[in-house]
Amino acid sequence: MKVCVIGAGYVGLVTGACLAEIGHNVICVDKENSKINSLSEGICPIYEIGLEELIKKNLKKKTLNFTADLAGAIRSQDIIFICVGTPPLPNGKPDLTSLDDVSKLIGSCLNGYKIIVNKSTVPIGTAKRVKKIIKENESKRNNKNESFDFDIISNPEFLKEGEAVNDAFFPERIVIGSESHKAVEIMKELYKSIINQDFEYDVKNSRNNRKKIPIIITDSTSSELIKYASNAFLATKISFINEVANICERVGANIIDVTYGMGLDSRIGNKYLRAGIGWGGSCFPKDVRALAFTAEEYGAPANILNAVIQVNNYQRYRIIQKAMDTLGIIEDKIIGVLGIAFKPDTNDTREAPSITIINKFLELGAEVRAYDPVVKKCPREMDDKVIIANDIYETVKNADLLILVTEWPEFLNLDFNKVKSLMKSPNIIDARNMLKKKSLQNLVSITGVSGFNCVLKIIMAIFTI
Ligand code: UGA
Q1: What separation in Å is there between the alpha carbon of 54 and the centre of ligand 1?
Q2: For residue 355, which of 159, 319, 334, 376 sits 20 to 30 Å off, Cα-Cα?
């Protein structure tokens, strides 16, 4: 099938590369010429496991092509995926400027029946909005005497950064929202080999057990809501467990055991129950805010959603509080931060907790050094007074406090003897609850979470030991 993917961001690139791999003819479009030039040479602009190889392979097979000519790509292809960004406006409402511009162009380029697929996370009602804009712009076509049919599909993505390629090939479900039976049948055909798990691609250690993938056919509004409600629910689970972790800290319970005990109940499950510094990234913050905004716009209460956001903001503040409890005055203290990306296996720093806490420490007059295995530049939103260190040990040298912010596996295997000898005072805040008591017990004698007298003082952000 002939597919056009608009937007070479992480959703567009993963979607395009995956559809090319299962045999479709894909043209991926972006307005940034430099991005298109690099992609055409097989250089992937984002750090996403397995993606660059997939792009290279399909460029070679000529099943995947990149262009900046949007109108040409719309005209030549039959299924148009919209994968443009919908960043949040200050009031939480998603900015639909790119989506509207693309819809206008699609309207003025129609030259046959086409299916327009909303893959970007878009507000409830966007399928109808796109349809209206396309219709309004039909009159701008050169061939305006002819009328062409088109259908809109809402087909949300459920790709986790760092695992996006795996998630694209082995999704937990495929959601198709449309009012057109014809378009739904074509989409089923497009995804046939994914639904039947009948393709050659394989990834090492994938959780691929090749079971048929459930496909949910619904109306476009329900499909749009499935996406928001899924992300908001996962964020709710995390905020819930963070609130429980704070209670654990007060009453002297162990959050890891509490979570384990809860998670064994299959009605609860153990996923998205890792307590820590809270959720970040380009999706949860934006989507929870957008759903709360929609609820309020339509007069439905958003009490839970607003509380979920509040709990998440508090979690970052907890780290600052713990640092103050340990160091007293923050001014002139040296603070080492391990991890800048919002989570491991990505170089994405959007709404990363590291940004909030580093900016705050700098504002309080500390010297902050940060290290991340893949983020090597100071993110745009981060105060550029931060020193981006070349390695872990440069980060901890003479530091008064070390904070583990992102749970990169390499931080688990730190040489804590060396860490301790390099630091001015061996204080660690483990903001992800990643350090295991076992891995430290030969080095330290830990008797409790606070007030203990040990070689290396570990101040857990959340009570774990
Ligand atoms: C999320 C969803 O998981 C995807 O299904 C969805 O497609 C995507 O958003 C999107 O809307 O595009 P992602 O933002 O890549 O994916 O990140 P997650 O791995 O879900 O993690 C989100 C945040 O929650 C991270 O900050 C992570 O550190 C935090 N988290 C996750 C926890 O604090 N505890 C947990 O137990 C799990």
Answers
A1: 23
A2: 159
Mean pLDDT of 14-18: 98
Q: How far apart (Å, rounded) are the C-alpha atoms in residues 297 and 295?
A: 5
Axis-axis angle for helices 255-263, 220-251 (nearest 10): 140
Per residue in 180-235, pLDDT (tens digit) is 999 999 999 999 999 999 988 876 545 556 689 999 999 999 999 999 999 999 99
Q: How far apart are the first and last CA of the chain?
A: 55
Kindly give the distance from the C-alpha atom of residue 196 to the centroid of ligand 1, in angstroms, as a whole number.
27
Measured distance CA(189)–CA(3) in Å, rounded: 13
240's tokens: 């819930």
Residue 237's contacts (CB-CB under 8 Å, 6 or more residues apart) are: 271, 272, 273
Q: Which residue has the tokens 């992102």?
A: 406
Whether the per-residue pLDDT at 280 is higher than 60: the answer is yes
Contact 27, 77 (CB under 8 A): yes
The full length of the chain comes to 465
What's the pTM value of the predicted model, to 2 decimals? Answer: 0.92
Asked if 283 is an active-site residue, the reply is: yes
Tokens of 282: 């380009």
Please choose, from the candidates 372, 442, 363, 379, the residue with its C-alpha nearest in 3D space to the C-alpha of residue 405.
372
- Angle at 436 (CA atoms; ends 319, 361), nearest 5 degrees: 20
Distances in Å between the Cα of 187 and the Cα atoms of 19, 83, 154, 336 are: 12, 16, 11, 50
> From the CB of residue 415, how many other CB atoms can be counted at a distance below 10 Å?
12
* Marked catalytic residue, from 44, 283, 378, 454: 283
Please answer whether residues 18 and 41 qualify as being in contact, where contact means their C-beta atoms are separated by less than 8 angstroms: no
Nearest CA to ligand 1 atom 23: 279
Best residue among 118, 161, 174, 405 to mutate for probing ligand 1's pocket (most ligand atoms within 8 Å of CB) is 161
Query: Could you identify the atom of ligand 1 that is nearest to the CA of residue 156?
Result: 7
- Find the helix or strand (DSSP H, E) in which 396 lies: helix 392-396
SS3 152: strand
